[in-house]
Amino acid sequence: MKSTTREPSLFDALIPIFFLLVLLSLAVFYFGDNSSSGPNQIALMICAGIATLVGLKNGHQRKHIEKSIVKGISLTLGAILILLAVGTLIGTWLLAGTVPTMIYFGLQILNPDYFFVSCSIICAIVAISIGSSWTVAATIGVALMGVANGLNISAPITAGAIISGAYFGDKLSPLSDTTNLAPAIAGTELFTHIKHMTWSTIPSFVIALFIFLILGFNHDVKVADGQLDGLLTSLQDVYFIDWYLLLPLVVTLTLAVKKVPAFPAIGIGAITGAIWAMLFQQDLILSYANTELGNVSANITVVWQVMHEGLKLNTDNAVMNDLLSGGGMGSMLNTIWLIICAMTFGAIMEGVGLLKKIVETLIRFSQRASSLITTTIITAFGTNCIAADQYIAIVMPGRMFKEEYNKRNLAPENLSRALEDGGTVTSPLVPWNTCGAYMQSVLLVNPLEYAVFCFFNWLTPIVGITCAVLGYKVKTLVTNDTKEPFVGPVKIPKKLRRVKL
């Protein structure tokens, strides 16, 4: 005999949200920067249990809830594989001298006064070229963080500049998965979507660059006399450094430009780094190897160890040790733990209809076009917080609001832009979101520290809401002779996957 399910009330939907906010706040209060190293995971799992109890109360079967959890976690497997590949890449690039070489040249080229602006622009250009904010953060971003540490420049502001540039480029790149996903869900054409996004994206980035410029001029960079020269000398003492050690970076970015999915592109980049380490960093490798091993065995064991454990530099220079230690698959396990817990909570919320109830309630209060667009942006951001994944933050509100946009004669690019303004760019601001967890694991700065400096990511939804309120660039549908809104059939391309592997 099949059990009948009841539609949840708004009170039902808000119960897990209330407890989540309380527990996450307590986690930050008691554990501070370490809240993402276990406390947040516990909070998410407790709230997942609360959401389960609400679902059971409303007649959902335990097996249905379990299937929702499995489905939700399975959607993140692509991201998890990318994380593991990135950990390996960072480890081998540190050993190969690729990251140290970027830091070496960056320390000499980048002017501290223009450092934050330069970080954003460099990351934006690369992200537009390859369409991936994650790849940019794991490659260019890691090197720029190293330069910032070498110059004693604020790590949180640097991370904010990197993320701002990376997400600006990702948002406007036709190669980006989210930039393809949003118009596919809303029912508009890709380049129509990109063109419509420029009205909220470009002003936000220009304002962000201006703020970074001011911060750069007012940032007190304390580099003691001889400290920079000493760091450059230390880099040369530990590593063999030359321009061709940047080849693993060139290989990875070329594969990304050629539209090779992120997982194999990053994996090939990691393997290239391992080969480059064995070719050019023999002194460093042999210093870590067991003295009883031959050269071949020493190379194999050290590279293998760095791939899973990362590089742990042990020199007399403490700055060097902090700067160039890290990476390895193992360094990503805490992030993966956080993602699994967050997706468990989000999957249950969606599976038992609690997210849908919240969105339906919001639609009732959105009587005007401006309020509907504003609600869409806020809902996408809220979904990032609740479901902990930017793809869900695009797909779920997109499905929920699409019909309402059609009823109100609003062009679908209004919806696709709102989804990106509220969903894509705000994802790294949430510590337990897949993007926030990823950025922390790669840039080694807590989202609670860098989020305030992600000016582009905050400004974009604000500018989007401002455009909606003012009625600026809010497009209406072209109607046919029957005066009915015309929207062509929408098909999500088969090649468009949730996470590119």
Automatic annotation (TrEMBL):
Membrane topology: Multi-pass membrane protein
Transmembrane portions of the chain: 12-32, 38-56, 68-94, 114-147, 199-218, 238-257, 262-280, 335-355, 376-396, 450-472
Keywords from the UniProt entry: Antiport, Cell membrane, Membrane, Transmembrane, Transmembrane helix, Transport
InterPro entries linked: Na/H_antiport_NhaC (IPR004770), Na/H_Antiport_NhaC-like_C (IPR018461), NhaC_Na-H+_Antiporter (IPR052180)
Annotated Na+/H+ antiporter NhaC-like C-terminal domain residues: 165-471
Pfam family, one: Na_H_antiporter
Compartments, record wording: Cell membrane
Main location: membrane
PANTHER family (alphabetical): MALATE-2H(+)/NA(+)-LACTATE ANTIPORTER (PTHR33451), MALATE-2H(+)_NA(+)-LACTATE ANTIPORTER (PTHR33451:SF3)
Family: Belongs to the NhaC Na(+)/H(+) (TC 2.A.35) antiporter family.
Protein name: Na+/H+ antiporter NhaC
Provenance organism: Thalassotalea psychrophila
Gene assigned in the entry: nhaC
